[in-house]
């Protein structure tokens, strides 16, 4: 994949690449208009979160604040598990037994009607 195939947000006035954004619904809308205007319609999209994903596959499974006509397929992040590991690490670090950790958490694909 070439650098020009990656859009990092689409704030007005920002350079072509990399772009800066706020991971918002408006960023997703602007990105789609930008891709259409440039005649660069992709075969697939990977979005940084559900707010910009609109009706593709999102990443964070938190589309509840924007009701969609079509429920969004998303990769759910196990936030409780993240929190539990963070607390365990902090307690060990405070007890003088901290260090670096290698942590791998398996996300879950939540299939809905957008796929």
Arithmetic mean of pLDDT: 75
Instruction: Catalogue the unreliable spans.
Output: none
Give the end-to-end Cα distance, rounded to a whole number of Å.
23 Å
Strand order of the largest sheet: 1-2-3
List strands and helices in order, with pairings:
Blueprint: H1 25-37, H2 50-53, E1 57-59, E2 73-76, H3 79-94, E3 108-110
Parallel strand pairs: 1-2
Antiparallel strand pairs: 2-3
Q: What keyword list fits this structure?
A:
29% helix; 115 residues; alpha+beta; three-stranded mixed sheet; elongated; single chain; 3 helices
Protein architecture, described:
This protein has helices spanning 25-37, 50-53, 79-94, and strands at residues 57-59, 73-76, 108-110. The protein has 115 residues and is an alpha+beta fold. Helix content is 29%, strand content 9%. The mean pLDDT is 75. Strands 1-2-3 form a 3-stranded mixed beta sheet.
What is the compact description of this entry?
The mean pLDDT is 75. The chain has helices at 25-37, 50-53, 79-94, and strands spanning 57-59, 73-76, 108-110. The protein is built from three helices and three strands.
